[in-house]
Amino acid sequence: MIGRLSLKFPAETFGSIQLWLTIVVLCLAPLFFGSVDQLSIAIWTVVLSIGVLCGVAKPLSVGQSRILFAFLALCLAYGLVAVMQVAPHLIDQLNDPSWQRANSLLGLDLSPRISSRAEIPPASIGHLLLLVTSFMSGFFVGTSRRNGDLLVSCARYSILFYAVYGLIALVLTPDMLLWAPKLAYRGSLTTTFVNHNTAATFIGAGAILWLCSAFFSLQSFRYSSLRMLLLMPSNEHLAFKVIFRSAVGLTCFFALLLTGSRGGLICSSLGLLVAISLMIANRVKPGFWYAAGSGFVALAGTAAWLSGTSRIASQGLFDDARWSVYGFCIDAIRERPLLGSGAGTFGDLFPSLRTDDFSTWGVWDYAHSTLLEIAVEMGIPIAAMVVIAALASLFILAQAALRSKDRGRSSLSAITGIAVLSYLHSMIDFPLQVPGYVILFGILLGCGLARAAEPAKSPQNATVRVRFG
C-alpha cells in the first residue's frame, strides 16, 4: 500500500503542475500585445515545454496515441522540409535564383539553397515549437475529464476578462493599446492585441464557449409547462446560470461587433452555428429545427443590421488589395510548387511579387491567408497535409460531440465551433500566426481531441503508456 501511494502521489503532483502551467499560459499569453515578440514566444515555449514534460507519463488510449503521433508526424514533416530548404546544393533545380544573382553582382561564392535565407528564421522555429507545446499541453490536460472541464472553464473566463477590458478601454482610452499609443485600428476594439481581426477571432471563441454553455444549461431544464417551470424551486439556480451565461455570451458578441472585423464576425457566426447544431442534433423533434432555423436567421439579420454602418456596409466583404495578394501568392506557388520558397520567407519574397498596378501602400509581412502562405513557403504537399489534418480534427471532434451524452457535449461542440472559426478566418487572415491566439487555439484543440479519443467506460478498454524523450 505504501509503495502504491508513493507512486501515485508524484503522478498526481505532476498532473496538477502540468494543468496549472497550461492554464497560466493560456490566460496570460494574450496579455502583452498578443505575445508577438521573440522574448514572449521563448518564455511561453519554455513554460509549456515544462508542462509537457510533466504530462508525458500520463497513460493514453490507443486512439489518443494515434492522434498525438499523427500531429507530431505532421510537425516533423514540416520541420524536415524547412531543414531541406536551407541545406546547400540539395536540389540544384529548385535553388532560389537570388543566390546566383548575389554571387554575380557582388562577386561572392555563396552556396545556393532552396530557401532565400541561409538559415531558418528564429521566428518560424519559435512559432512551430509554440504550436507543438501548446497542442501537447492541452492534449495531456484533456486526458483527464475533470482537468479538461477546468481548462475550458478557465478559457471562458479568461476571454471574458479580455472582452470586458476591451470594452472599457474603447470608452476610456480609445487611442491607447495598453500603455502604448494605438497606431492602427483606432475606434475599433482590439483588447490587448495589435490587430483587430485577431481580437475578433479571440473574442468570437469566447462567445462560442459561453453561448454553448448557456445552451447546455437551457437543455437541462425539465418541465412540462411554463407554470411548472416557474413553480419548481430546483430550476431557480439553473435559470440563473442560463441568464448569466447568455448575458456574458451576448457581451462577447457585442464586443466582437465593435472590433469591426468582417471576417471575424462572419466566421464566428458560422462557428457558433456549427457548435449549436451539434448540441441539438439527435436531441430535438423535427419541428424544433424550424424554430432553430428561424432563430439563426434572426441572429444573422440582427448581426447584418448592426454591422450596416461598419466596414461590411462601406467596403463589402473583401477588399481588392487582398484579392491581388492572393493572386500573387498563387503565381509564386506555381513557380515553386514542391518545396516552396523557404520557411518564414514570405516577407522577403513579396516585394518581388508586387506589380506596378498594385498601388496599396505598406509592408505585407503576412499573406492574410495562412494556408496560402504555407503553400508559398513550404510547398503544396505540406499545405495539403495541413488541410487534411484540419479536416480530420473537425471530423473527430464532431463525431465525439454527437456521441457524447453528458456535459462533455457542450465542450466538444464549442471546441468544434472554435476550430471552424479559426480555420475559416485563417483562410482570409492570420490569427493562427499570432502567438497570443495560437496558444489558446492549440491548447483547446489538443484538449478537445484528447477528450474525443478517450475510450468508452468499459473494463475491457486497455490503455497504453506513451513516453517521449
Characterise this structure.
With 469 residues, this protein is mainly α. It has 18 helices and four strands. Strands 1-4 form a two-stranded antiparallel sheet. Helix 1 (2-28) packs parallel to helix 6 (145-172). It is globular and about 85 Å long. Mean pLDDT is 82; it is low at 1-7, 223-227, 308-316 and 459-469.
The proportion of residues in beta strands is: under 5%
Instruction: Quickly count the domains.
Output: 1
- Taking all Cα atoms into account, the compactness measure Rg is 24 Å
Poorly predicted runs are 1-7, 223-227, 308-316, 459-469
Beta strands, count: 4
Helix/strand-derived category reads: mainly alpha
Quote the distance from N terminus to C terminus.
30 Å
Sketch the topology as an H/E string, one letter per element: HHEHHHHEEHHHHHHHHHHHHE
Overall pLDDT confidence: 82
Give the CA-based shape.
globular
Number of helices: 18
Major sheet strand order: 1-4
Approximately how much helix is present in the residues? 55-70%
The major beta sheet can be summarized as: 2 strands, antiparallel
